Amino acid sequence: MNDKSASKSASHDLDGNATRERILLEAARLFRQHGYAATTLREVADAAGVKAGSIYYHFESKEQILGEVLDKGIKIVYETVRARIDALPKDAPWRDRIAAGIEGHLWGMLHHGDFTSANMRIYGQIPESAKAKHRVVRREYADYWDHLLQSALAAGELRTDASTTIIRLFVIGALNWTVEWYNPQRGSFQDFARQISVVVFDGILAHQESN
Amino acid sequence: MNDKSASKSASHDLDGNATRERILLEAARLFRQHGYAATTLREVADAAGVKAGSIYYHFESKEQILGEVLDKGIKIVYETVRARIDALPKDAPWRDRIAAGIEGHLWGMLHHGDFTSANMRIYGQIPESAKAKHRVVRREYADYWDHLLQSALAAGELRTDASTTIIRLFVIGALNWTVEWYNPQRGSFQDFARQISVVVFDGILAHQESN
DNA sequence: GTCTATATCAGGATAGAC
DNA sequence: GTCTATCCTGATATAGAC
């Protein structure tokens, strides 16, 4: 944020923390694009504008970078979702809460695509040690949605002929995958989110007459 | 199929083609589990019960194995879908055709999970040369669904306030992702497919009264 | 805090025996 | 058709100068 460092030689950096964030961002982008194993720290370093050796000043290992990228992917989305739902009136119907959740999930995800897509793509492929550490964050977010859906079910707003677990897995999976094909050139984000929401809520079929 | 080879030394195999298929299957499994780059040909060879050098008798390169695994992932699903839909009466409503397509897609995918999941997981991460060759097969399958949905739309059976392209991408993506979390212990495949279908057709909300 | 080395190890691919 | 042995390249991580 402040660039007024006084007397440092040109080969030294001004803000070490900015470098760290840049490394994380470029790592996420490259993990997404080429996978975890295929991404070399040399590439990450190049993209972040440092030399490979310098990465080890900020991180202990490649796996530590992985862990931070994964956590960030979920947390960004989770926080957006919670913020939107908390902003609703206390007595808002569950349908409105779920709608806010869907919109928040899509928004958080599509605005930090490298972190969220990297998470989706590589989670299935990383060493068990990395998965285990990351699992806590994942579980929390899943529980949040489970609670939301079960409350809607108890209030009679959700269909009863499909299990809430399957609904959660199916819907969140479907939302997540949009990051792989969403194209902002097809229309505004708002219109995109609206189309996704109506399909999730009411399905793909034409209705005899909608009220 | 026939095991009556007469006089071959123990270190030689009986059926070269079976070895080739085994290599493909194990490659798919390992690509799915660890990614393309992280999977070594030594691992594939071990899993297939041969030595690393032997792979090069059956395949020219690692990338050729990749190509065959990817194509197989789509083709298995495509063929199942087409077979189910072709088996319907000629005048079947589009809703029934789409239902058969959904069930066929799920069935083909979940019964060849290593090929289909490997495809989903690694397609975004492989070299452009491999993507380009595989794109033809992908495009064909997408076109097939586009045609299905556009016919349903023309017949007034599909909702009109969401684009068919978005519906296709969203629904196929959602179906695909089930391979990442489907658990046969939660119930029969038939019941699973039914739950997915009602959600796709009619959404997650409770209906005032269903007819 | 970043650099230039470099130690160490592992993977794709090939050659040639059997 | 499968094996053993090896070439060659490139990756993580470390050491120590600046």
Task: Please bin the fraction of helical residues of chain A.
Answer: 55-70%
Question: Which structural class should the secondary elements of chain A be placed in?
Answer: mainly alpha
The oligomeric state of the chains shown is homodimer
Name given to the CATH architecture of the domain at 62-202 in chain A: Orthogonal Bundle
Short description:
Helix content of chain A is 66%, strand content 0%. Chain A is mainly alpha-helical and 211 residues long. Chain A has a domain at 62-202: Tetracycline Repressor, domain 2 (Orthogonal Bundle), CATH 1.10.357.
Q: Can you tag this structure with a few keywords?
A:
homodimer; mainly alpha; 9 helices; elongated; disordered N terminus; DNA-binding
Description:
The structure is a homodimer of 211-residue chains. With 211 residues, chain A is an all-alpha fold. The first copy, chain A, has a domain at 62-202: Tetracycline Repressor, domain 2, CATH 1.10.357.10. Helices cover 66% and strands 0% of the residues of chain A. Chain A contains nine helices and no strands. Chain A has helices at 16-34, 41-48, 55-58, 62-86, 94-111, 113-123, 128-154, 164-177, 189-202. The first copy, chain A, is elongated. The first copy, chain A, starts with 15 loop residues before the first helix and ends in a 9-residue tail after the last helix. The model of chain A is unreliable at 1-13 (pLDDT under 50). Chains A and B meet through helix 1, helix 6, helix 8 and helix 9 of A and helix 1, helix 6, helix 8 and helix 9 of B. Chain A binds a DNA duplex (18 and 18 nucleotides) through residues 8-9, 11-13, 16, 19, 40-42, 50-54, 56-58, 61-62.
